[in-house]
Write a structure and sequence with these properties.
This protein has 240 residues and is an alpha+beta fold. It folds into two domains: 99 residues; 127 residues, Aminopeptidase (3-Layer(aba) Sandwich), CATH 3.40.630. Strand 1 and strand 2 form a beta hairpin. It is globular.
Length: 240
Amino acid sequence: MIPTETSPLLAAAARNNADWCAAVCHSHGVPSRFDDAAWSSARRTPPYYPDAVTLHPGAVPADVVAAVDTATPGCSIKDSFATLDLAPEGFVELFTAQWIHRPAEVTAGATAPPLRAEPVTTAAGLRTWQTAWHGSEAGPDVFRSALLDHPSVRVLGLYRGAGLCGGAVLNHGAGVVGLSNLFAIDPADAGAVWASTVAAAAHHFPGRPLVGYEHGDALVPALASGFDILGQLRVWLRTT
């Protein structure tokens, strides 16, 4: 039986993530829409971003498959509550991950964060940030400068002295702040990146709980930074 109820916080995390996906699509001129079951785009979305994100655990395959482009390669759907079986529609499970949550009342602490967080404010700065995020200049053009004008989005560079050590994105929506695209140039700085991003979120969007999702080894620094697991999600990729 597919559950039709979920925690308000898990629903807010899914909606917040869909808001971020919509913002990225808008920066590329790709239209998208929301309905009760899902956010979706009828056109192929930018690299690494799904064509649909479910917003309700009672969503069924027909709610999302009909709204996306399954005729061209690369269609993906984020099953926010891990309740869909999309195998009969020609999809395979790409990965599973865990939604994570950090309550607003859990503060970053009285000590200064290990890295200095600065918002990215220029197109040139965003290109430098994206190169560091991807690990080379050969990566796809995902983050465009229109995101820097979005009132609910902060793209952060994290510095030690003058050197860029990592980065993250914050987006405020659905009553929560989403953390995404966290990266550390040196893996040894992963914990510092998480701690400094949490502190920056409290500065830019005070009093808001934090949400995101991670899987595999990336969960370790998240949990060490005060996050708890909220629930499971699944990403599906169409291969036929």
